[in-house]
TrEMBL record:
It is found in: Cytoplasm. PANTHER family: DIMETHYLADENOSINE TRANSFERASE (PTHR11727), DIMETHYLADENOSINE TRANSFERASE-RELATED (PTHR11727:SF7). Pfam families: RrnaAD. It comes from Novilysobacter erysipheiresistens. Its EC number is 2.1.1.182. Specifically dimethylates two adjacent adenosines (A1518 and A1519) in the loop of a conserved hairpin near the 3'-end of 16S rRNA in the 30S particle. May play a critical role in biogenesis of 30S subunits. Residues 35-218 form the Ribosomal RNA adenine methylase transferase N-terminal domain. Keywords: Cytoplasm, Methyltransferase, RNA-binding, rRNA processing, S-adenosyl-L-methionine, Transferase. This is Ribosomal RNA small subunit methyltransferase A. It is an enzyme of class 2 (transferase). PROSITE patterns: RRNA_A_DIMETH (PS01131), SAM_RNA_A_N6_MT (PS51689).
Amino acid sequence: MTRNRHSSAPSLGPDGFASEAKKHLGQNFLHERTIIDKIVQAVNPKPGDRLVEIGPGQGAITFPLLDRHGELTVIEFDRDLIFPLTEAARAHGTLTVIHRDVLKVDFSALAADDGHHGEASSPSGRTIRLVGNLPYNLSSPILFHALDHATAISDMTFMLQKEVVDRMASGPGNKVYGRLSVMLQAYCTVTPLFTVPPGAFRPAPKVDSAVVRLVPRAPEAIGIRDREVFARVVRDAFGQRRKTLRNALSNVCDASALEAAGVPPTARAEQIDVADFVRLANALTT
Ligand code: SAM
């Protein structure tokens, strides 16, 4: 039992963690050992890696990662979890806790600001590796936030709703292919790793989950001239996905611009691939 039980904290369980999961914070705590081991294996930390976990919760992934790697930064928004997490981490390694909304954490600054100047550095600068069983209500905003800092991130291993992972990894012609697929695949390689059943969590979510690895691509490999133009074209194209591109993108360009970019004006967004979107956005970038 932890010593520091302050009045505003909920009742604490024997391990010092609050017993009630908070739905509004997307708290589904992982307890299935085999799944935790598979996540740690998938992350496979190497000496010098700078691991950052989003939403450590009660430490299901945190402690095994600390045991394996010795050092970890975590970002947690729930203040009731901060103290027990820090206390419990003492025996496992060095834990740095950032008590903040992850959407307000500047990953680029985090990558730039540390004491590691040696083997952790990538050729293009210092980078972090993100890990997390994400709060499902925030998974898309977190993914887009990470994309904004993609050059500071060497890879991401995330647990998400399986349906979201399917969307992220799908291609043209697939009914779940959409904005998330194009945005993620433009900036990262997306590799679904394994599915996780609801029973692996407490409380159990209603849907299957899946673990996915995202590896940001080098900016020159991506070839997008203007990220905002690209984001707008993709958003508008899928905003009216049943319309032809000529109609869906009428605020952005006309049929001749589509033709000039090699994109059929009568095609729909769900029929064209990431390279088509990049070519079109670049053609519209002055
Ligand atoms: N990693 C733990 C596990 O696997 O059992 C907990 C995962 S739980 C699905 C999501 C975690 O994200 C919770 O601990 C929750 O408090 C935290 N969280 C929710 N919103 C957050 C935010 N905006 N910023 C940081 N953490 C957040």
